Amino acid sequence: MQFKLNAKFTPKGDQPKAIEKLVEGLQKGDRYQTLLGVTGSGKTFTIANVIEKVQKPTLIIAHNKTLAAQLCSEFRTFFPDAAVEYFVSYYDYYQPEAYLPNTDVYIEKDLEINMEIERLRHAATQALIYRKDVIIVASVSCIYGLGNPDVYKKTLLTLGEGFEESRDYILQRLVEMYFTRSEVLERGKFRVHGQTLEIMPADQEVIIRVEFDGDLIAKITRFEAVSMKNLGTEKSITIYPAKHFVVDDETTQKAITQIEKELEERLDVLEKNGKLLEAERLRRRTKYDLEMMREIGYCSGIENYSRYLTNREPGTPPYTLLDFFPKDFLMVIDESHVTVPQIGAMFEGDKSRKTSLIDYGFRLPSAYDNRPLKFPEFESHINQLIFTSATPGKYEKEKSEQVVEQIIRPTGLVDPETEIRPTENQIQNLIPEIVDRAKKKERVLVTTLTKKMAEELSEYLKEAGVKAEYLHSEVDTLDRVGILENLRRGTIDCLVGVNLLREGLDLPEVTLVAILDADKEGFLRSDVSLIQTIGRAARNVKGKVILYADRITGSMKRALDETDRRRARQIKYNIENKITPKTIEKAIESIVDHELNPQVTREFIDLESIEDLPAVIRQKTDEMKIAAKNLEFEKAAVIRDEVVQLRKLKIK
C-alpha cells in the first residue's frame, strides 16, 4: 500500500516552499536536512506531505513519551489507512540494577511493565515486517536492544484451514515463541480444551480459536477478547512471537558454553588481583543464572548475556528497532535540539552504571554489550534524516546539507506579545490572569523551576479556586496523556509544569504562558528554553507571555530579540498578503487513538454476545484484582461493576 495523505487543508504560508525544498533534498540524496520551523508553523503537516511524496517507511523520534503519543495521534489522522504505530519504553517504573561501592549497597533490578504499551511495541515491529506504508513514532527507547529481527521473522507461525499440523506440534511451537499456557487468556498466552486451541496474540485484543479434526486444522475463528463477540473465520493467520527477544535451544546451549568460558577467564583475573570476595560473588551468581537457563531457558537479568544469545562479537552494537526497518527508510528527529543530545547521552550513562557491577563481581564484562547504541553507531543506521526544531542546535546545523526555514504560519498567527513583571508577589499577580481567562474558556500554562514547586503551586491554585493540575516526568505516561486531553477539554483551566511544557505540546486553547523566575539563568531558563516556552502561546490569536523577572538576563534578551524578529517578519507578511490571523483549530482526539486506553473497549461490551461467560467472568475478576493490587481503585471498581452485571446475566 502507498501513503495517502488525508487532510482538509492544503499547505500555506512557508509550508509549500519547505515541502518542495525537503523533497528535492531527499530526491538528490541529501543525507541530513533541517526544518527550522517556529512553533505552530505546521512542521508535522509539512513532514506528512514529505512522507507522502517520497513514499518511504519512516521513523520519527521524539524526546519523551507524551510528545511521541501526540505525534502518533496526528500522523494517524493524516494517514488513516497506513500503519502508524507507537514505540516507547514499556516500563511504568524501572529501577536498573546497580552497585554503590561507597556504601556497599547492591540495588536489584525492579520494574513494572505496562502491558498495553508492550502490545503497541509488538504492533510496531510486526507492521515493519509485512507492510511498506509504515510510520513508527518512537522515543529514544528505539536505540536499546530488541533482539535479532531475522530470528524474529523466522519464528513466525502460519496456520491455515486445511493445514496438516498436529496439535502438539503447534503447542510446542507456541512455547518456543514464548507463549505460556494458562486457563485465563491474556496477551501472549494460550489455552487448550480437547481439540480446541485458543491463542491471544501479543499485539491484539483478540482471541484466535483453532479447531482440529485429528491432525488437520478444521477451522480458525477470531473473537473480541472481552465480549467473545465472533469476528469471523480466517482462511489463514500468522502468529508472531510473544517477545521480541527470541532464542532457540541450540543458541541457548551454545551461549551457556561461551558464558562458562568467560566466567573462568574473569575469575582468574579477579583472583590474581586478590579480589576473592568479588570472584566468589561472580561465581555464585553466574552459576545460578546458567542453571536457570539450562532448566527453563531463561533467567532474571538474561539481557546481560545478550551478546551470546544474539551471536554478536564483543563490542558490536545491539540489534534495535532501527534494524527492523528496510535500508531505504526516512528518519525524522523531532525537537532535535533536545532529542539529539539525549540520544548521545544514553550510552555513557549506561556504561558508568555497568562499570561498578562488573568491577565488584556482580556481572561479567560481556554485560557491557547489553546497552543502547553509541552515537556513531546510531549515525551509521541513518539513511536520510530530517531534523525538526524551532531552535536547532550546532550539531544539526553543521551536519545539514540545507536548513529550510518555516517562519510564517499558515494561520497567519504571529509570535505572542511578551511582558516582563517583577517576581514579588508573582503568584498573587498571576491568579487574576488565570481566573480571567478561565471565564473566557481559555487555558493557561505555568512553568516552574522544580517538580516540587509545580506540585505545590498546583495545590495552592486549587485552594484559590482554580481548576489546576501539575505535569512532570514522574507522572505516568498514560496519565500525562489524559491530563493534556483534560486541559484541552476544559476540565482543567491551568497546567503547571517544568520543562515538559517546552517542546511540541500542541495546545491551541492556551492564551497565556507564565514563566516564573525567568531571570534564574540556567538550563530551564536558557534562550533556547525560553523561546520554546514562549512558543506555547503561539497557537492562539490572543496568545501572550508573562515573564516574571527582576532583571533581564542574557538568555532573556536573546530570546526576546529573536521573538521580536520573527514577530516583525510575520506581521509584515500578513499585511502584505492581507491575512487576518486565526487561532489553530484542532479536533480533540484521544491521543494514540483508543489504543492507549483499554477502558474505551469496556464501554461497548455487548453482554448478549458473550458466549464463554464463565471464562469472561474469571478474566474480569483477575483484572479487578490486578487493578486493586496496583492501587488503581477506581479502575477496580469499574471492573467490579462489570463482573456484577455478568454474574446477573449468568443467573438469567
From TrEMBL:
GO terms for molecular function: ATP binding; ATP hydrolysis activity; DNA binding; excinuclease ABC activity. Pfam families: Helicase_C, ResIII, UVR, UvrB, UvrB_inter. A motif (Beta-hairpin) lies at residues 90-113. Residues 24-181 form the Helicase ATP-binding domain. GO terms for cellular component: cytoplasm; excinuclease repair complex. ATP binds at residues 37-44. It comes from the Bacteria. Residues 614-649 form the UVR domain. Gene3D superfamilies: P-loop containing nucleotide triphosphate hydrolases (3.40.50.300), UVR domain (4.10.860.10). GO terms for biological process: nucleotide-excision repair; SOS response. Keywords: ATP-binding, Coiled coil, Cytoplasm, DNA damage, DNA excision, DNA repair, Excision nuclease, Nucleotide-binding, SOS response. It is found in: Cytoplasm. Belongs to the UvrB family. Forms a heterotetramer with UvrA during the search for lesions. Interacts with UvrC in an incision complex. The UvrABC repair system catalyzes the recognition and processing of DNA lesions. A damage recognition complex composed of 2 UvrA and 2 UvrB subunits scans DNA for abnormalities. Upon binding of the UvrA(2)B(2) complex to a putative damaged site, the DNA wraps around one UvrB monomer. DNA wrap is dependent on ATP binding by UvrB and probably causes local melting of the DNA helix, facilitating insertion of UvrB beta-hairpin between the DNA strands. Then UvrB probes one DNA strand for the presence of a lesion. This is UvrABC system protein B. It comes from Berkelbacteria bacterium GW2011_GWE1_39_12. The gene is uvrB.
